[in-house]
Every structure is written in structure tokens, then in C-alpha cells.
Design goal:
Elements lengths: L7 E5 L6 H11 L3 E3 L3 E2 L13 E2 L2 H9 L3 E7 L2 E6 L8 E5 L2 H10 L4 E6 L3 H10 L4 H21 L2 E4 L3 H20 L3
Helix pairs in contact: 1-6, 3-5, 4-5
This protein binds guanosine-5'-monophosphate.
The site of guanosine-5'-monophosphate (5GP) has 15 residues, from β5, β6 and α3.
Length: about 190
């Protein structure tokens, strides 16, 4: 466990950059990390695990919003996505895998949150990864367009920018960043 307050680590970046795979690997490799499970109104993709999100109706989402149940939420390409308020008692460092608008909200609420922005090695590789998930052409095009808007904002907000050109190297780099922040935190106490 970290010595100070648990860290909030926000992993953001455009669709198809590999954020999901990266955060899964981070929590597997570092037992002090806890991965927040978001709520979404998006339909579950074919082959997507049941626990990838808490898949809910718009009514259920809006109700949870109204009772202040989210740390942040946004509407992304027509669906709601939100981070439920993290359990403050767990003591683990919390990992959020969210898009740029949510990252901005978390930074405003918690300026000490660490924002790691992940970039694809190229647009062509990002497109290849998006297509690999089985999304329809129109969805892939929408996500690529969205990425053009998200990247400059994300990069200006980020504490660290990482290019996911090699998954293992990216994971190692992110674990080092997290360790560095833990050590920096520990020296403040
Ligand atoms: P996807 O539909 O590809 O699973 O997710 C679309 C985008 O929403 C991704 O950039 C993903 O990181 C982001 N996202 C997932 N969960 C949340 C959340 O709880 N809040 C916000 N703001 N974005 C989220």
C-alpha cells in the first residue's frame, strides 16, 4: 500500500490505443493497483467480457447520476460512461481508464491525480486495432475522428505521455511512472 493517500491514476487516450489491455496488465502485475469498473449505456460488444463494464440502461445511469453516484461521467459518441465513486476505504491505488473529458473532470476534482495519456504509434495502427475489435466501418471512422479532437486536449492535460508501440515496454514504462509517484509521495511524509 502507498504510504500517503491512495493514488488516482488516470489512463486516457484515443480509442484503439490499447488502454484496456494496458490497464488489465497493470493490475495483474502490481497488486497495489485496483481497477475501477465503469458504468456504460453502450451495448456489450460480441466477445466482450461481461465484467468489462457494468452495462446499464439510460434510466439506471441517469438515476445513479442524480443521486451523486459518479466521480465523473460523460457522453461519448451517443452513450453515457461514468466512474462510480471509488471506495475510499480499500487503500489500494485506483486506476481509471477513461476518455479525455472524464480525465479533465478528475483533474479538476483531484489535482493530485496522475494522468497518463497513451498515444498509438500511428493512425494506421490505431485503425487496424479498432477494426480488429469488430466495430462497423462507420463506428471506426467516428472513433478516428474523435481521436483527432481528443489528442491535443489529452496531451496538454497529461502528466506523462506514452506511445504504445510495444505493449510490454509500455506496461513497464507505466509501472515505473507509478513507482516514481509512490516514492515521491512517500518522501513527503
Ligand atoms: P469503449 O466504448 O471503446 O469501451 O469506450 C469509449 C471511450 O470511453 C474510451 O475512450 C474509454 O476509455 C472511455 N470510458 C470508459 N469508461 C469511462 C468512464 O467511466 N468515464 C469516461 N469519462 N470515459 C470512459
Amino acid at each position: 500500500m502507498s504510504q500517503g493517500e491512495p493514488l488516482i491514476i488516470v489512463v486516457s487516450g484515443p480509442g484503439g490505443v490499447g488502454k484496456g489491455t494496458i490497464v488489465e496488465a497493470l493490475v495483474k502485475r502490481d497488486s497495489q493497483l485496483w481497477l475501477s469498473r465503469s458504468w456504460t449505456t453502450r451495448a456489450q460488444r460480441q466477445g466482450e467480457p461481461d465484467d468489462a463494464y457494468r452495462f446499464v440502461s439510460r434510466d439506471a445511469f441517469e438515476h445513479h447520476m442524480a443521486v451523486g453516484g459518479f466521480l465523473e461521467w460523460t457522453e461519448f459518441l451517443g452513450n453515457y460512461y461514468g466512474t462510480p465513486n471509488p471506495d475510499a476505504t480499500s487503500g489500494s491505488d485506483v486506476v481509471l481508464e477513461i476518455e479525455v473529458d472524464g480525465a479533465q473532470q478528475v483533474k479538476a476534482l483531484r489535482p493530485d491525480a496522475i494522468l497518463i495519456f497513451v498515444l498509438p504509434p500511428s493512425r494506421a495502427e490505431q485503425e487496424r486495432r479498432l477494426r480488429g475489435r469488430g466495430d462497423a466501418d462507420q463506428k471506426v471512422a467516428e472513433r478516428l475522428r474523435k481521436a483527432e479532437d481528443e489528442e491535443p486536449v489529452g496531451m496538454s492535460l497529461a502528466d506523462h505521455v506514452v506511445v504504445n508501440d510495444d505493449l510490454e515496454r509500455t506496461i513497464d514504462e507505466m509501472l515505473e511512472i507509478i513507482e516514481w509517484h509512490r516514492a515521491a509521495d512517500a518522501t513527503q511524509y
